[in-house]
Design goal:
Layout (H helix, E strand, L loop, with lengths): L15 H8 L6 E2 L12 H20 L8 H15 L8 E4 L1 H13 L5 E6 L3 H8 L4 E8 L2 E2 L1 H11 L3 E4 L13 H14 L2 E5 L15 H4 L4 E6 L11 E4 L2 H15 L4 H13 L2 H26 L5 E2 L7 E5 L6 H9 L3 E2 L1 E2 L12 E5 L5 H21 L1 H5 L1
Parallel strand pairs: 1-12, 3-4, 3-6, 6-7, 7-8
Antiparallel strand pairs: 2-9, 4-5, 8-9, 10-11, 11-14, 13-14
Length: 401
């Protein structure tokens, strides 16, 4: 049978991560390839107790259709959390509950992107956003990431020349690089976006997972009418519940509600009520602090192992939060070749190519530290260091260059 699919399907990449993870399912493989939270930190007992109470006490309401905008107490909690964590005055009416923050990206794409619209992204950029936006057939224009955040000169050029419909970025512990934008960089980005009247989509999936350094201001504080924020409970409660949200100015949120109605009517109301009651009844700050402390320990363990095991010439970031370290190989070396060699030693990495829309990143690697024990981190980085040393030794002409 010859099927005829929409032309957009030819331009929408399959998830490189999902394909890579198929190769890493064997239990003997130490995988740094995924972007998984640590399941040992999921509040399983507390969620089980909460779920039982919701079913028993809220029964039919928890199992019936619900409003598109989401469970009011959950939206109120998110608004209060913004005030407590970031000093933002947000109304619950500016919040829409979604099926994970990935749905936020899809809804934003539907609202803003026409075929051949320009979307501005960080370089490297989050693969999930690239995939979600690609469905709407845009053109991507990228801005290089420095250690401080987006290159301001490049951003100005993109805004002036390409007139993007929005700029998408992850200012806190960026995926994949782990970079957190500096305060000065945020102010400079906000000034450029305000001057160009360009919307910023602020993906704050990792904002709660900050384990060192000062709290940076949200772009929502700097340019409130131009900022759409996305958030997620996946990193601080459990990803399997698929709960996220959009926080946006009312005219934008109304558009998001309309397209969500046509997509799925509303997000899982049972999960919404379970999460809402969990947040009300358990010490959430202590829970998040425990996650952040664990990730700090795992991150430091990986950084120490990298410093000890990786050969000279491999550079890497030192994140202050989140779940990832970004490594760059010496010029001329291939992260795909490194992946092939490493998997033979039962260790998996994620080559950086899919985080670039312009063919770059062939020498970059994303390493996840959140889903491994210190023992597996040390063993996996030791194996990876051995593979790197052998790779560099076999190709001295590249290393010399």
């Amino acid at each position: 049978m010859q099927y005829t699919f929409a032309s957009r399907m030819e331009k929408t990449p399959r998830s490189f991560i999902r394909e890579i993870l198929k190769v890493t399912q064997r239990p003997e493989i130490i995988s740094f390839a995924g972007g998984l939270p640590n399941p040992a930190l999921f509040p399983v007992k507390e969620l089980a107790e909460t779920a039982e109470k919701v079913i028993v006490e809220e029964g039919t309401a928890a199992l019936q259709y619900a409003t598109t905008e989401g469970h009011p107490p959950l939206r109120e909690w998110i608004a209060e959390r913004y005030k407590k964590r970031l000093g933002l005055e947000i109304s619950p009416d500016e919040i829409l509950i979604t099926n994970g923050s990935q749905q936020c990206l899809d809804l934003i794409g539907k609202i803003f992107i026409n075929k051949d619209s320009v979307v501005a992204l960080e370089r490297p950029g989050y693969l999930g956003a690239i995939q979600a936006f690609s469905m709407y057939e845009p053109k991507f224009s990228t801005i290089s990431l420095t250690s401080e955040g987006p290159d301001i000169h490049e951003l100005g050029q993109v805004l002036d020349k390409d007139k993007p419909c929005f700029f998408y970025g992850v200012p806190n512990s960026q995926n994949p690089s782990g970079i957190t934008w500096s305060r000065e960089n945020r102010k400079a980005v906000a000034e450029r976006l305000e001057r160009a009247e360009t919307v910023f989509v602020e993906d704050d999936a990792y904002g709660e997972l900050k384990f060192r350094g000062e709290q940076m201001p949200s772009m929502k504080e700097l340019i409130p009418e131009l900022t759409v924020m996305t958030g997620s409970f996946s990193k601080i409660i459990a990803p399997g519940m698929r709960m996220g949200w959009i926080c946006a100015p009312t005219p934008i949120l109304e558009q998001a509600v309309t397209v969500k109605q046509g997509t799925d009517l509303h997000s899982n109301i049972l999960s919404q009520r379970i999460i809402s009651r969990f947040l009300a009844n358990y010490p959430v700050d202590a829970h998040i602090a425990r996650i952040s402390a664990a990730y700090e320990s795992q991150c430091d363990c990986m950084l120490s192992a990298i410093q000890s095991e990786f050969p000279e010439g491999v550079s890497y970031t030192r994140p202050d939060g989140g779940m990832f370290i970004w490594a760059t190989l010496p010029k001329g070396y291939s992260s795909m070749e490194l992946f092939d060699r490493a998997i033979k030693k039962d260790v998996a990495i994620l080559p950086g190519l899919p985080f670039y829309t312009d063919g770059g990143g062939s020498d970059t690697v994303r390493l996840n530290f959140s889903n491994s024990t210190p023992e597996r981190i040390e063993e996996g980085i030791s194996r990876l260091g051995q593979v790197l040393r052998e790779y560099l030794k076999e190709t001295p002409e590249l290393h010399a260059a």
